[in-house]
Each structure stands twice: as structure tokens, then as C-alpha cells.
Design brief:
Blueprint: H1 25-42, H2 48-61, H3 72-83
């Protein structure tokens, strides 16, 4: 099979930094469950890192100022308030 002469444009990536994050076992299990559900429903694999980046991106685009929160509990409640605008999809 001949290779196509068409080439895909190379997207210019954002700059990035590699960090280490320690998560609770329940957080890892949650990410893994989402990854499995996505694979079953949409037929592609997604990494934990991609899921974490998408959650951070959603929070940053929400317009919420998390620095107004005094602790993690307040941050969670703030984000829940913003993200609960729609009806959440429940697991089957």
C-alpha cells in the first residue's frame, strides 16, 4: 500500500512540566473506572494523566476562583456548585 502524500499538520503543543502527584487509592480507582467506561463506550484508551488534565482544564475554564477557598473541602463544594448545573449521568 502506497503512503499518502498528504501530511497532517503538526499541532503546536503548550509548554508542559512533568510532576508527581500522590493520590488516594479511591481517586486512582475512580480514574481507572472512568478510563474503562470510556474504552467500553467509545472504543479508545485514555490515560489517568489525560483525565486529570481534563478535570484541571474544566476547572480553569469554569471561571471559578479556587484561591477564594480556605481548604480542599471548600474547593470541592465550589466546584460541585458550578458543575452541578446539568443533570449528572449516573452509572448503569
Amino acid at each position: 500500500m502506497a503512503k499518502s502524500d498528504k501530511t497532517r499538520p503538526v499541532p503546536l503543543p503548550d509548554s508542559w512540566a512533568k510532576i508527581t502527584v500522590v493520590l488516594l487509592d479511591r481517586h486512582v480507582a475512580y480514574l481507572d473506572r472512568i478510563a474503562v467506561d470510556i474504552r467500553l463506550e467509545h472504543g479508545f484508551a485514555i490515560s489517568r494523566a489525560e483525565l486529570i488534565r481534563s478535570l484541571i482544564e474544566a476547572a480553569s475554564r469554569s471561571g471559578v476562583v479556587l484561591s477564594d477557598s480556605a481548604d480542599m473541602k471548600q474547593m470541592i463544594e465550589t466546584l460541585r456548585g458550578v458543575w452541578s448545573g446539568g443533570k449528572p449521568r449516573r452509572r448503569r
